[in-house]
Amino acid sequence: MSTSKPLYRYADGRVWNSLAIGYSVGGYLIGIGLLLTSFWLAKLGGLLLLAHAMIIGAYLIHEFAHGTIFSKPAHNALAGEVFSWMTGGCYADFQDLRRKHMRHHVDRADVITFDSKVFINSLPSWVRKLILALEWAYIPAVELIMHFYVVLLPFISKSEKHRARRGKVLTVLLIRTALFAVLGWLSFSALVLYCVAWLIMVTVLRFADAYQHTYDAFAVLEEDGKIPADKLRDRAYEQLNTFSNVVSLRWPSLNLLLLNFAYHNAHHEKPVAPWYRLPKLHEELYGDAYRQVVPMSELLSSFHRHRVRRVLSDDYGVFVDGPKRAENFYGAVGVSFLTAV
Q1: What's the pLDDT at 223?
Q2: CA 255 to CA 55: how far, in whole Å?
Q3: Residues of 39-51 as b/e, b for ≥16 C-beta within 10 angstroms?
Q4: How many angstroms separate the CA atoms of 48 and 51, rounded?
Q5: Which pLDDT tens digit goes with each residue over 177-221?
Q6: Is 105:92 a contact under the CB 8 Å cutoff?
Q7: What are 114-141's pLDDT values in tens digits?
Q8: In 3D, which of 43, 50, 59, 27 has the Cα closest to residue 247?
Q9: Contacts by 22-25 with C-beta closer than 8 Å and gap 24+?
């Protein structure tokens, strides 16, 4: 006699996962509702709620990709597609995103489809300067380019697999354009603030992504693309080139603001551990004295000062020991799992 699988993969995740999913979906809908009000204080609250709901949604996509939420892969895939619509990653297939992210873990490298640095350097000087000026102004131009590339890829690639996505991309574009048109018709300010909320989400994600790895990056368009075996990328390499950029050491609960994604060394040590177990796992494995633990307060200055340099830099800068260990740590750019397809 067969028994049906429980909805959630882990029994201790029923409450935590329900709360996270409910908060993200509810915050998204309520946030949009607040944007449509005529009170600017409510609009501001809606902006912040919407942005954070999308941030949690993005990190839930990461959990769906690892299969840590639901028991059945099909349920994780369906939820991944739904939350991709909320976060703007819906132009690519969730399964493509998942496969490319798994390579990040298996190959211990930043496996990307699009090399933004090569592309930007190939542009006319005035376009390159415009991109750098936008980045100086904290507008995530590189991420915008990469999102646009995901939309454009099916129409410029010679791969039959990518070309087969043309219909989906056109359909998504049509639906999302119609939805944004309706939102703009109801309230132009709500449309503008929605875009601002999305940019906040992208900026938060790129800040977290920038300092979690000093992996070598490789542009691999096809699934079977090879990573050069030019060095030993073992578990020691993985931990040495992975950082836990926690939101706070003093108040660990603040890491829930990013769904505990900042406990990145623990995540890479045990990728099937769900997000709500990572703080305990991190404490068991490393503790706060671990060299790779770098509070975000130590990284804010570097993120600000190197916001233009990291766009075209050939390296990540240097991370050293001492009170100013992250001073010349530039960080990465363009490595978001939402565009790694």
Answers
A1: 59
A2: 13
A3: eeeebebbbebbb
A4: 5
A5: 999 999 999 999 999 999 999 999 999 999 999 999 998 877 776
A6: no
A7: 888 889 999 999 999 999 999 999 999 9
A8: 59
A9: 23/53, 23/56, 24/53, 24/54, 24/56, 24/57, 24/60, 24/83, 24/86, 25/53, 25/57, 25/86
